[in-house]
């Protein structure tokens, strides 16, 4: 079996998008990690077409014409974090993160430092026209923190 | 209320999702990757054909089959996939904050009026979206028994023994032109050896492998050939007055092993491979390592199995005879057993039958595979017997399997 190269850096630099996460969770690529117990059930695309906004994402190099759907799930909140007032070495805000799912459910979680950094590995996109000589992988980002929801959702009032 | 004033980030799900793998990075690897100029890593697995065509290892153990390794230029990690009951989502910021169909599900009004105070408060232009979900992570670990790659290398190389004819080496002019070929052949072999570059090169040197560009492939000499080359070198050096204990020119020694017509019994590539093996860098022989190598190689050549065991004193004398005059006293059994990597390299067989063997103790070579087995037997015998008793106990079984892996 041939050896597969794993490139230490991404081939394409990500498009700059304003990153709303607290500074600590921001990475050069903008990618972040969220862990939760259980799964988020997303309705299949067919019966959900009416509810979705359709955009063609310009930063998806795979197929510029492919439709990309974004389905709203909820809201992410860092109640004790303020970009203006939280000092960089202050870690108290990490203890509380909320994820509202739909209108009436809330999960309480925290921001945790990973015991070992995690590399996010993806197949390297080939430039069209380049000879296809086997698979290549790349480390798109190395993340050191995760947003972690270990408890079940609790019911809340509509806020 | 603090939650009201805090920043709200819209959380969405992007379809279609992307494929990601999460790879846990040990501290040393994380450091390497965060360096200024990180190397390209390699993901390698053993070639299936090399396992099948490997005659020395007809029944590969579980640990040697079907694995994937991650290699830095110098190190090798085994990859293990660990399933998680939690789902890990990969998020990225989304700039698509304007036209959203149904925000009602999350409590925002359906009318997307910017004057709406609630919507303004939610600051919904800021969005994180999940683009991938992973149900498992990849862990890296280094097996304690190391990576026994010599059998794999053996399967990829031709066996060069003393009757190998027509595989003559090449002359100086050709050698220059062939160096690219040579490189390409070695690269091809290393691709199928599932460890790091450095470990490949070390193993290549360890087994005295060499390339004959004419044949288009790599070769691995048998112990008989290696010890033959070495013996000839020692004899040639004596004739030419070359002191192998000091610095010498490889070309001088090569000339000393040629016959009157300037013909070598072996290709120069093989000769150089043997020199490389006994010289630990530079142009002088590492005496300690060389003495050990000569002893081991000789033993492998004359007594490869327990059935062919030779008498200890007989062996010791032959060993001494294969060393340069001044080194004879270096040969000692302690040299064979103390050395670092080859912990169980030599097994001394005590035979009861003193009549058949005048010398009560004989000695034979124990190859790498058997060394692994010997080591493993010691540690797993006890656990295997308890497992046999409680085969119905799921946890016990699992525990023992885990222990054997380490």
Automatic annotation (TrEMBL), chain A:
GO terms for cellular component: Ctf18 RFC-like complex. One of its GO terms (molecular function) is DNA binding. It comes from the Eukaryota. It is found in: Nucleus. This is Putative sister chromatid cohesion protein Ctf8. One of its GO terms (biological process) is mitotic sister chromatid cohesion. Residues 1-24, 41-67 are annotated as: Disordered. The keyword DNA-binding applies. Keywords: Cell cycle, DNA replication, DNA-binding, Nucleus. Pfam families: Ctf8. Belongs to the CTF8 family. Residues 10-24, 41-58 have a biased composition (Polar residues). It comes from Aspergillus sclerotiicarbonarius (strain CBS 121057 / IBT 28362).
Automatic annotation (TrEMBL), chain B:
Pfam families: Dcc1 (PF09724). InterPro entries: Dcc1. The keyword Cytoplasm does not apply. The keyword Zinc does not apply. Residues 34-64 are annotated as: Disordered. One of its GO terms (cellular component) is Ctf18 RFC-like complex. Keywords: DNA replication. GO terms for biological process: DNA replication; maintenance of mitotic sister chromatid cohesion. PANTHER family: SISTER CHROMATID COHESION PROTEIN DCC1 (PTHR13395:SF6), SISTER CHROMATID COHESION PROTEIN DCC1-RELATED (PTHR13395). Belongs to the DCC1 family. This is Sister chromatid cohesion protein Dcc1. It comes from Aspergillus sclerotiicarbonarius (strain CBS 121057 / IBT 28362).
């Amino acid at each position: 079996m041939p050896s597969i190269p794993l490139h230490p850096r991404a081939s394409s630099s990500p498009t700059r998008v304003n990153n709303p996460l607290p500074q600590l969770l921001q990475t050069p690529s903008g990618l972040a990690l969220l862990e939760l117990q259980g799964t988020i059930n997303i309705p299949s695309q067919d019966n959900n077409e009416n509810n979705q906004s359709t955009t063609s994402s310009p930063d998806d190099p795979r197929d510029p014409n492919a439709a990309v759907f974004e389905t709203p799930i909820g809201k992410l909140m860092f109640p004790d974090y303020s970009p203006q007032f939280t000092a960089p070495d202050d870690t108290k805000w990490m203890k509380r993160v909320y994820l509202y799912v739909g209108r009436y459910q809330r999960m309480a979680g925290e921001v945790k430092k990973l015991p070992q950094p995690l590399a996010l590995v993806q197949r390297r996109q080939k430039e069209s026209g380049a000879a296809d000589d086997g698979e290549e992988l790349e480390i798109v980002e190395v993340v050191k923190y995760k947003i972690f929801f270990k408890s079940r959702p609790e019911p809340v009032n509509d806020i | 209320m603090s939650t009201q004033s805090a920043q709200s980030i819209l959380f969405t799900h992007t379809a279609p999702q992307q494929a990601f793998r999460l790879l846990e990075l040990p501290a040393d690897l994380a450091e390497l990757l965060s360096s200024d100029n990180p190397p390209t890593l390699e993901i390698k697995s053993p070639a299936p054909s090399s396992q099948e065509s490997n005659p020395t290892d007809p029944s590969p153990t579980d640990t040697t089959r079907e694995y994937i390794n991650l290699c830095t230029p110098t190190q090798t990690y085994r990859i293990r996939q660990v399933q998680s009951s939690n789902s890990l989502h990969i998020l990225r910021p989304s700039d698509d904050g304007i036209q959203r169909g149904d925000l009602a599900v999350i409590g925002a009004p359906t009318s997307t009026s910017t004057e709406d105070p609630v919507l303004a408060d939610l600051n919904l232009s800021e969005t994180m979206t999940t683009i991938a979900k992973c149900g498992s992570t990849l862990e890296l670990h280094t097996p304690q028994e190391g990576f026994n790659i010599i059998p794999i290398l053996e399967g990829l190389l031709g066996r060069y023994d003393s009757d190998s004819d027509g595989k003559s080496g090449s002359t100086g002019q050709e050698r220059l032109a062939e160096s690219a070929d040579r490189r390409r052949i070695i690269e091809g072999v290393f691709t199928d050896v599932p460890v790091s570059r450095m470990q490949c090169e070390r193993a290549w040197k360890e087994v005295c492998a060499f390339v004959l560009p004419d044949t288009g492939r790599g070769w691995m000499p048998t112990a008989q050939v290696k010890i033959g080359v070495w013996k000839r070198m020692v004899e040639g050096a004596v004739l030419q007055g070359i002191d192998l204990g000091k610095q010498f020119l490889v070309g001088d020694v090569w000339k000393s092993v040629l016959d009157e017509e300037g013909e070598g019994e072996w290709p120069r590539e093989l000769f150089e491979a043997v020199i490389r093996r006994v010289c630990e860098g530079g142009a002088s022989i590492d005496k300690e390592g060389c003495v050990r190598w000569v002893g081991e190689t000789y033993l492998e050549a004359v007594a490869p199995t327990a059935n062919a065991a030779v008498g200890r004193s007989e062996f010791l004398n032959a060993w001494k005879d294969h060393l340069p005059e001044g080194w004879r006293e270096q040969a000692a059994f302690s040299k064979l057993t103390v050395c670092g990597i080859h912990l169980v390299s030599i097994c001394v067989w005590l035979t009861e039958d003193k009549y058949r063997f005048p010398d009560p103790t004989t000695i034979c070579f124990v190859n790498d595979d058997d060394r692994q087995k010997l080591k493993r037997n010691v540690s797993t015998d006890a656990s295997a017997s308890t497992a046999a008793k409680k085969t119905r106990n799921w946890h016990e079984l699992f525990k023992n399997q885990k222990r054997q892996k380490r």
